[in-house]
Amino acid sequence: MLSRQIAIIDFGSQYTQLIVRRIRELGYYSRLFQPEELKETGHPAAVILSGGPRSTREEGAPDIDWAWLNSLGVPVLGVCYGMQLLNLKHGGQVSPGTKREYGPALMTPEGGSALFEGVSASQVWMSHSDTCTALAEETKVIARNADGVPVALQFGPRVFGIQFHPEVSHSHEGSQMLANFIALADDPPRFEMASFKDHLIGEIRKQVGNRKVVCGVSGGVDSTVLAVLLHEAKVPLRAVFVDHGLLRKDEAVEVQANFARLGVPIETVYCADRFLGALAGETDPEKKRKIIGNLFLDVFWDAIGEEVELFAQGTLYPDVIESASSGSIASKIKTHHNRVDRILDLQKEGRVLEPLADLFKDEVRALGAVLGIDHDILWRHPFPGPGLAVRCPGEVTEEKLRIIRECDAIYMERLRATGWYEKVWQAYAAL
User: Fold this and answer.
1) 167 has catalytic annotation
2) In the chain, which segments carry CATH 3.40.50.620?
3) Residue 271 annotated to the active site
């Protein structure tokens, strides 16, 4: 993780990850923090307080140490809940609105604030039920909606609040507003993939030392980029590919050929009979998924056959955010495959390496391109861990798998021939 960033304080909004994304798209490094982690941001270049589902009027509502944050002297932007919290911190009041406002609204800037430089009257996206009803004398209104209600406030030279969400595409000039906000920061940290790759390699070498690294590869984008990155870092590496017999047509051969192209040696474990035997007679989808998941881990660890000094996995930033949010302000979304008991035990022992954990999916592809990975590998469609079993209702049999493989191969060939393969995120054939 880079030591300096534009810090996003997450109060639980469904849009919070988008703030991080938009800032990175503007070419600056940003990260998400929980409110209680405010002081762990170090000395950020700027801070954004996100929206959230709670009301600032509730007992026990999420809060921040404003005195500490203000002492940093950096630009601060409050979005929705964040604006209401800033209004309270500056002596204003927050009250229930006459109705919940959700959807598009017209925002008209006024007063020539730097936050709205180059921004005209335009559509923004609202999602709130409370409103700032009283303002401190020093607080300035810098934008209003069509009814004349304040929707943006300025609390100080570089402290702002906006009632709408600039991070969503429905706010037509939201990216310009975020760019204007970042421009107020002193030397904001740039985010460029070529230099970030060098940073990652340095961090990998520092964490690995002389230890041997083990990782699983599937041929998918994340594990491929991970393996190539580790190979580029020149650390001792064992990359293991498990062919569980539930892959697409000729996929094992394709994966092996791709890694040969990339110059990364992999070990292949062939165990189709073991998986099909374990699945025999089972028709319940959830039970099939558990059988495959548990057996895969058994096969993988058996193949390693030695004490794991360091286990590398392709955890991405959304996985980290969602796992970290469990039990906090944001709702738990799902339990991730990279947070199973064995992995958690290794984490406690400091034996898990997650070099991609600061990146979103499209950023992983960008990193892969910088690493020289071929375009066709980087743009392979995602494929579920349980493989074709999830596309096979009822009992999984060799004949059903054969039919699905042939259908899927025909479908993929037609998508490529018509130029549609990269236009869709995922496509598949199923029984």
Assistant:
1) yes
2) 193-417
3) no
